[in-house]
Amino acid sequence: MNKARKLAQIGRECVACGCCTAACPMGAVRIDSGVTARVDGELCVGCGKCAKACPAAVISLTAREAAV
User: Fold this and answer.
1) Prediction pTM value
2) Phi, psi for 61 (deg, rounded to 5)
3) How far is residue 19's CA from residue 53's CA, in Å, rounded to a whole number?
4) Each residue of 10-65: pLDDT tens digit?
């Protein structure tokens, strides 16, 4: 189980430029169908490198929901 407190979330404005995928050290961000980027919550460690690399500033870190 991932114990990171944050999770990257990508906004609908994503244009799939690929900057976030290159910046993610865990390989948690992938381009989906060439249209938008998606975050794999199991791999995301909440480091924020993808958000810093995004030229459109559409990636944010949000609190990860507690497991029930």
Assistant:
1) 0.85
2) -105, 130
3) 6
4) 999 999 999 999 999 999 999 988 899 999 999 999 999 999 999 999 999 999 87
pLDDT of 3 higher than 80? no
What is Dmax (Cα atoms) for the chain?
35
- The residues, any chain, with a CB within 8 Å of residue 50's CB and separated by 6 or more, are 8, 20, 21, 23, 24, 28, 29, 39, 59
Q: Identify the DSSP state of 42.
A: T
Taking the C-alpha atoms of residue 42 and residue 3, their distance in angstroms, rounded to an integer, is: 10
**Pairing verdict, β 6-10 and 36-39:** unpaired
Residue 10: burial class (beta carbons within 10 Å; 0-12, 13-18, 19+): buried
Token pair for 63: 């609190």
56: which strand partners? none
